Task: structure prediction
Amino acid sequence: MNSDFLLSSYMFSLPPELIAQEPAPVRDGSRLMILDRASGALSLSRFADLAAHLPPGLFVINNSRVLPARLTGQRASGGKAEFLLLTPLPLLTVRETGNGWQEAEAEGLLRGSKRLRTGEEITLGESFSLVILEKADFGRSRVRLRWKGILEERFRNLGALPLPPYIRRPAGEADAERYQTLFARSEKTGSVAAPTAGLHFSEGLKEALTAAGHTWAEITLYVGYGTFSPVRCHDIRDHGMHAEFVEISPETAEAVNRAKAEGRAVTAVGTTAVRALEGVWRSRGRVEGHAGWINIFLYPGEPFGVVDHLITNFHLPGSTLLMLVSAFAGRERMLDAYARAVQERFRFFSYGDAMLIL
Result:
């Protein structure tokens, strides 16, 4: 079997101390590794100097916002239960049930100190609860949320940001700002993880890039917990990829197609932008306006039709994200770059350093 299809081919040794537990002191203060796909050359820089490494082109960014989606509730027995909402808020079908009450069915992760039961009600706050409708594998459950007031406000007031499991501390006050990108829009609230490549951009850097001739376009991809789901298949082609809800406006589609026609490079800011653009291209043959679910698994051998350059963080061993960047740049070349990143003591994962793949 081609080694590009083996899960074991995407494993690498990572010292635990290189997993970033805090963001850089300032947004654009992270380090930047640059990989030239044509030559295989690696160079080191700073993210603040990004403009020096890219000719004017189009940046495509994800404008989704992370919801404080992790809630602690109380069971009728007095025990505690933890709930993580997985369904993006804009995708909930909300029903008015009278006297100011509203309800909606949603998917989430549930965890309790003792076994949770179908039909059980969990109190999440005053006039805010859920009922377990159906339980599935790996802690997933279908629930009915019931509340008064504005649901997003209930989460903002009661919830915690769901920092990734490899950040071994609870979310703090600083995370409320630093685990959101500069581009996050309040009306696009619903991700359970940040599109982390966007975390490196500051207002000053964006202004400098715009002054240098770069333009910007936005997509929305609501990042789900599936982004952390491990690949468990020996042959990665057997992995069941999670679906994601994507919105691409006609204006963004036009900007992308115009840039391609004019020979200006399209730079995807993060793997979420890649999946959105390439997912639509794969189904339509070009980038068009889209609002719906996309399920795309990119690994070596899969074609790219839109993205010319990619800004991304350093990803987990054996993850679908490492497979995606390996599809874009080549697996062996990517693993060589990761080995260099470990040698140079780059910081890994969500709050870590960045890579520009040309």
User: Anything to note?
Assistant: The longest helix spans residues 271-284. The chain has a mean pLDDT of 95. The CA atoms of residues 165 and 234 lie 24 Å apart. DSSP finds seven helices and 18 strands in the chain.
